[in-house]
Prior knowledge:
Elements: E1 7-13, E2 20-26, E3 28-29, E4 35-38, H1 49-56, E5 59-64, E6 67-75, H2 78-91, H3 95-101, E7 108-113
Antiparallel strand pairs: 1-2, 1-5, 3-4, 4-7, 5-6, 6-7
Amino acid sequence: MAGGIPVLLLSTSGRRSGRRRTTPLLYHRESNGDLLLVAANGGAAWNPDWLHDLRARPEAEVDIDGRVIPVVASVLGPTERSAAWATAVEAFPGLEDNQRVAVRKIPIVRLQERHR
């Protein structure tokens, strides 16, 4: 948490370089424990690099308050995204502004804990 806002550190492998990249991101925890990330990229017209990395290599790690958790990512399809979007906007109202200015449908990624 940073100032009461849930923040995690997402570590991915670069899709071309294979190098480890770590990005701080807001997240929402679902009731089943899965984590949701919104690839808003500040409302930019393009998706963030971390999303491209996860699409190429869905296995990653998150660090939440010093606890490192291995995860597997999946981009939500249209039906799941609609429900998740409503939840995300409730948690982070500024997302609506991001979607208004973006020329793309902002993806939502689900992270599920991966057992080693």
